[in-house]
TrEMBL record:
Residue stretches making up the Protein kinase domain: 11-297
PANTHER family tied to this protein: MITOGEN-ACTIVATED PROTEIN KINASE KINASE KINASE 20-RELATED, SERINE_THREONINE-PROTEIN KINASE NEKL-3
Protein name according to UniProt: Serine/threonine protein kinase
Record's compositionally biased regions (Basic and acidic residues): 419-429
Bilayer-crossing regions: 360-379
Source organism per UniProt: Mucilaginibacter gossypiicola
GO molecular function: ATP binding; protein serine/threonine kinase activity
Organism taxonomic ancestry: Bacteria, Pseudomonadati, Bacteroidota, Sphingobacteriia, Sphingobacteriales
SMART domains recorded: S_TKc
Keyword set, alphabetical order: ATP-binding, Kinase, Membrane, Nucleotide-binding, Serine/threonine-protein kinase, Transferase, Transmembrane, Transmembrane helix
Annotated region described as Disordered, given as residue ranges: 419-440
Gene3D superfamilies on file: Phosphorylase Kinase, domain 1, Transferase(Phosphotransferase) domain 1
One Pfam family named in its UniProt record: Pkinase
Amino acid sequence: MSKVFTITEGLENMGALRTGGQGSVYKGRRYGPIITAVKLLPTPIHTESTDDKNFRNFQNEVEKLKKVNEEPNPNVVKILNSGITESGSFPFIEMEYIDGPDLEDLLKPPHEAIFSIKEVIKLADQLANALSHCHKVSVKHGDIKSNNVKFNVHTGNYVLLDFGLSAMSDDQRRTSIRHAGAIEFMAPEQNEGLMYFQTDVYSYGIILYELIGGQVPFPLKDNGETARNAVMLAHMESEIPDVMELRRKNLPESWSEEQKEMQMQVPAWLLKVVAKCLQKDINNRYANGIELQEALMQGSIGAISPTHPDESWNTEVLLKENERLQGLVLYYQENENKQPVEVVNSAPVDPKAVRMSKPIFIMFMILLCGFTVFSAVVMDKFGGRIYHGVVDRLFKPSKKPADTAATKVILPAKKDSVETKPNDFRDESNIPPEVDSTADSILRNIQRAKQQKEDTQFYRDSVKKADTSNLNF
């Protein structure tokens, strides 16, 4: 893009970003890679002297703007420099260049016509923070509209831009608004060129209304004078249409029925904030950005406070969101369990190793402990017997049975003359072995004595019968 004029020494003009009746915004570059945005005001100042009323007013307003950056704020654009252009003598304000789309772009295709509830609340909080920051140093913006709020793609914050009207005098502001202002966002009092802190609050409410409903309450059909007057008159006299009806009408077709139902549950406290911002009478609005920010904070706290049930977030929405989050947690847990576990720096697994699950291992340990206790009880009660039986079995020599053939004593047959009388019969089945053995020994001795007697008698008898005549003594 060709250069139209020189801004000032050391600031290169890289072409127009946006032009309008309230001034134009150009892209500038300092020596090096630093890119800035330069706002040129439409009324030229031919002399840089305090005697010039326009220059004096410009200088006063610029001094106010410098106070905005004395304390940095992530939602307010930084004011870098100001002065008069070398060609054309236009006053300019050099600001930080914000890389990203503005709200007007974010509400056009391929984007959805409305914002989600979460994003509306985010913007409401950040834009209220910007207004509160400016109003603390007595700076009124005066031109809050959707294309003066940008989304910074590098920080994820919404940033308030273009303090051009703040640097204008009342007469310049009145003329600029009447012919070139964004009439859809202007408060009723701005038709007369008036600007208060409550004026910024009203425009803030219009932005939230647009994000919730998908359009401003009184759209401008064309840029003709008749259409502009009709919109301004509507702001002054007509009631604000129901924003929830517009939201239902502008719900994206790509959303599921469940998503549509959830996104229709706009918090009651947020709708009350919007309604109060859009009051016709400035005395019925929030006094300034500071009071607006406090109202947002109280509303968000009341959403979870049991002492403010009428300002709740809608319990049904919170429950559904909680169920959705729990479902996501379960889903991710199941996927995590299905994924193979990666073992890092571990020893190789033995293929012959036996693996068992944790429940089976616990049951095995319980059975092992029970068997150990049972064994201890058995050993305590029968251990002595078991021990002696094992010792006798292993270490004591077993008694060999006597050779009955070698030691058997053949007793002489009893004479038939010995008769057993019936009353002499005894049952020897219950006689102990020791007694039976003793009796056998006695009987054997008696029989041996008899035998010796008989043998001796037999010897004597044989001697008597022998022939002893031939014996010589």
